TrEMBL record:
This is Diaminopimelate epimerase-like protein. The keyword Mitochondrion does not apply. It comes from Thelephora terrestris. GO terms for molecular function: isomerase activity. Belongs to the PhzF family. It holds the Pfam family PhzC-PhzF.
Amino acid sequence: MSSTSTSIPRSYPFAIANAFTRDPFGGNPATVIFLDPSNTLTQEERLKFSNGLNQPMVVFLTPTPTSANKPGVVSFEVQYFTSDCEIELCGHGTIAATKIILDSATNSPGFGQGTQFPAFCSPETHAIEYTTAKGVVISSRKVVMDEEDWFEIVLPAGKLKKLTDEEGGRVVGILARAMGKEPRVKYIGMGEPPLQHYLLIVLEETENLEQLKFVDIKALEATGFQVHVVTTDSTSGKFSEDYITRMFAPAAGVDEDHVCGSANCTMGPYWAAQKGITELKVRQVSERGGKLRVGVYGDVIKLRGQVRVTSVGQLFL
């Protein structure tokens, strides 16, 4: 008689949630995977998981000890992956993670009736701290706005540097190829570190950003920037928000992002200065679409969104 040994597969709890929406078919999906320090994944395995899941963003969280002088706070190490590569920061993935963690304390209301999911915090938890691979600490919490739950993260406010006429002209030429027509541009600026790979493009509102067709998004790779944030004012009355936006990052494997939170690190301060206000309502006019709230307070922005959990389960390796 021969015996066959079988190894028990490693398992990892996960949840999928749509950020910046309450619609199960709207917003920007993110898969959040919880790791145990004693049962972790290599970088290669994380990338393979992310590629196989084929989600806009996969967030890997590893619980870490929290200082005793921070009652009600839980801490995690966080890494963000697209299906192609690791990135430094993802706003929508972080906000989705916050909803999932806080709801895990009671398995409600996000998970649905009868759903079993591990608890990653206690009912007394009121804040979460994430430490990125670069050592950046992101603070997050739940807030109540208009009698509804929103989830907030605090990010550094980005500073912008206007492109020179020569460099701006080069970018406009590339943008024209991507759009298939000459764009009406009001402003082009690049983010200063740590947002130096962000390019902010402000178009005239008459460009009708929601309906604007990009015939060759891949052409944007020639700008040399990873993230292209395109925005216009919102004064026509069609939308109640203060500004609207779309985001393109073909160099990172994301032709168009459904809803990009971190893009508001550059847009928020820009529009706050233009309008003379600190609290702004934002709409991303991609096909799935999403709504955000942005508060601009000196060196930081408070990025807020609602979240809809759509799936929970276990991944096996």
